Each structure stands twice: as structure tokens, then as C-alpha cells.
Amino acid sequence: MKTILESIQTRLSTITEFNYIGEDWGQLNTDPLVTMNWPCCIYNISRGFYNDLGKDPSQTPKNRQTGKFRLKLNIANPRMDTTNENWIEHDLMEKVHIALHGFSPLENCSVLKRNDYKRLKRNNGMIIYKVIYTFEVINI
Description:
This protein is an alpha+beta fold. It has helices spanning 2-12, 32-35, 88-100; strands at residues 20-23, 40-55, 63-76, 113-121, 127-138. Strand 2 (40-55) and strand 3 form a beta hairpin. The termini are close together.
């Protein structure tokens, strides 16, 4: 998974408008106005399901599996003046979609496909856009 996450981060780093891109370890749950550089895109693999395909002693690893995974991205930018930044998050989501939809993070991965979207308004007034992509990995 680490190699997949690194590949996704490298791909996201082509979006120069983000001032912070990284794995989600709870940055937005602490005091995001102090700890983050804005706008940001934080991500993680939030869910995985595995199917057992049996064993193949001639392969490494011997146990053959496929996995279906969910990549969750949080795109956030606290608005200080809403009149000047009304659509910035939507522009960023479109750039993320152009960078990730159809991208395969590794040779044994399917392409990423956008699957879900959710707008979340926090108690502190911050709006976070959650975008979910799905992909599969074979022979893991």
C-alpha cells in the first residue's frame, strides 16, 4: 500500500495550487487553522476488500488475491473572504479528477475511478469536499 500511496501523492503533486498534499493522519481534526497550509488535499485508503484466488507456488507471493480499495480525498480551503474564493474547491476537484481518473498507481492496479462525492460542513465553518475513488489490485 505504501508504494500505491506514494504514486498517488506524486500524481497529486502536479497540481501546483495545493499548498499541502499528504496522507490523512487527522490533520483536519486538530486545529487545522494552525497546522495546515491551504488549500490542501489529504488522502488515505479508507477501505479494502480481498478475494482469495488460491495458491500458486511458482509466484511470489504464493497466495493469490485481488483487492478492491477505496481512496478517500479531502479537499479543503478555509475561506476568509467568500466573495473572492467562491469556486476554488470546485476548480481543485476538477484538477484532481483530471489527474487521477483513469490513472493506474502501479502496474498491477486498475485505473482509479471516481465513485462518490460528499460536501461536509464542519462546526468551525470549514467546508471539506470528500471525493472517493475506487481501484483494484491483482496478485497481492
